[in-house]
# Entry
Amino acid sequence: MPSAGDYVYATDVQDVADELADSITSWAAGAVSIVPVANTPTAGAVAFGKTLDSNVRVVATGTSTVPGSNLTEVAQSGTTTTGTNIYIYRTNTTSTSVHWLAIGGAS
# Structure
């Protein structure tokens, strides 16, 4: 396990989750595919598959060949200990995969 301040390079969210598993016991990771309405924030519901500790924090990132042009935003809202809503904003209707990592017990 890297020490504090070390950089960790990972190929995807699951790699990061595997690295953190030894020190963080309340977490979940996965991906959601969202088919957006063009030029409208569009949500995809995410279920963590288990109940996390309170104060859940979620990190999400979208996969796109044209970030900043067609995919302009990824955000989350309505997070509970069992799930969250991931939002994307695209200028077109291309289905988009969003990988996410949720950590419970954050202070």
